[in-house]
Amino acid sequence: MSDKVLSQFKPETHEENTIDCSRRLKFGIIGTGWIAESHVEALKQMPDVDIVAGTDLIPGKAEAFFKRYGVENVRLYPSHKEMLEAETDLDAVCVCTYNKTHAECTIDALNKGLHVLLEKPMCVTTQEALDIVRAEKKSGKILSLGFQPRMDENMKMIKKVVDSGELGRIYYIQTGGGRRHGIPGSTFIEEKTAGIGALGDIGCYSLDMVLNAIGYPKPLTVSGYRSNYLGTDPEFNTPEDAARFDVDDFAAAFIRLEGGIILDFRIAWAMHLDTPGDTIIMGTKASLRIPSTECWNGSIGGPMKMYKDVAGLPVEFEFPMYPQTDNGQGIFYKKLRSFIDAIKENGTAPVPSSQILYNQAIIDGIVQSAKAGKEVEIHLEEI
Q1: InterPro entries per the record (predicted)?
Q2: How far is it, in rounded angstroms, from Cα 5 to Cα 28?
């Protein structure tokens, strides 16, 4: 036995590959744009998955996509409806289309009896979200939402801290963040395809981080604001993109949640500032500060800090960051793997629609409040 092993205080553990390949799942990809690249890269690592079908509205795009990623023998279709009609033995689909078609594609797939991994944001409106949940319940299939930050160990620690009771009763939360220069292009910046801008693209992530940590209480009211001053500025954005930019590049809101909790939210694709603020969770016993991040697509922006009184004195301490120990597979792989395992084990959705319905209701509430110029109530029908 080597000195290296003897010097360890704990025995080294090794994760064994226990994936059961006796049952293979057949996947279809709806939409072959940018986000579909990550889906296919992850699915190619799954020994129990076959990508057998794909579709995109743009002629030739799907064919070029699968050729680029070396996925062979994929049957291609000009629309998701034609694919769902022809492919009678699919198990699941990944919905990777632009926001405005999320609801239609997801509902159609669920109605065909397929499991669905739906990319974020869930959709655009609260009504669409309600229709999706109804279709899911009717189908009896698994619908999971594409919030891969949930798979990050540092993100999980936020919920562990809240669940531990160390913070006491939560009464105020500030969250948001965003980018100084980070406006995407393509279908992200037009209302006809995206419906919503930074609010849906990265705002849904920051909302999920804190709402998941506190158990997703029901939203009651929203006072919201949206703007797109920088996205439409040809001196800030490219002239071509500025001319067609008609979604939000900044949004903010004051949200009242069940349980007397206040949520102060702000998100940006672009701003003349490094950050609009860290995430703060304030409780009656202690508070937690989570450093802001530009991406909102992975881990937190740095080590978290807790502030509390000990023996009558104010103290603070820092949580160490969890290292990446995923053998290079990453949280996107874990998102797909958790969805596949839920299907094969007759489990439940890793990121359930019942939670993200509230996320979507807040986003839509911000849109409606910004249009009305006043606070609005959030009404959710029973499903």
Answers
A1: Gfo/Idh/MocA-like_OxRdtase_N, Gfo/Idh/MocA_oxidrdct_glycsds, GFO_IDH_MocA-like_dom, NAD(P)-bd_dom_sf
A2: 46
**pLDDT recorded at residue 303:** 97
Scanning the structure block, which residue is given the tokens 């981080």? 209
- What H or E segment, with its residue span, contains residue 297? none
What pLDDT, on a 0 to 100 scale, did the predictor assign at position 325? 64
- State the Cα–Cα distance between residues 28 and 95, nearest whole angstrom: 9
- The confidence score (pLDDT) of residue 20 equals 86
Q: pTM for this one?
A: 0.94
Top-level CATH class of 25-149+332-355? alpha beta
Which CA distances in Å does 370 have to 124, 167, 250?
15, 33, 12
For residue 374, give the 3-state DSSP assignment.
coil
Average model confidence (pLDDT) across the chain:
94
Residues of the chain with pLDDT under 50: 1-16
Q: What is the 3-state secondary structure (H, E, C) of 125-152?
A: CHHHHHHHHHHHHHHCCCEEEECHHHHC
Chain segment 90-128, per-residue pLDDT in tens: 999 999 999 999 999 999 999 999 999 999 999 999 999
Residue 205 is inside which H or E element, if any? helix 203-213
According to CATH, where is 3.40.50.720 located in the chain?
25-149+332-355
- Neighbouring residues of 64: CB distance < 8 A, sequence distance ≥ 6: none
Non-local (6+) Cβ contacts of 338 within 8 A are 144, 151, 350
Count other C-beta atoms under 10 Å from residue 101's C-beta: 19
What values do phi and psi take at 344, rounded to 5?
-70, -25
Q: Name the superfamily (CATH) of residues 151-326+358-376.
A: Dihydrodipicolinate Reductase; domain 2 (3.30.360.10)
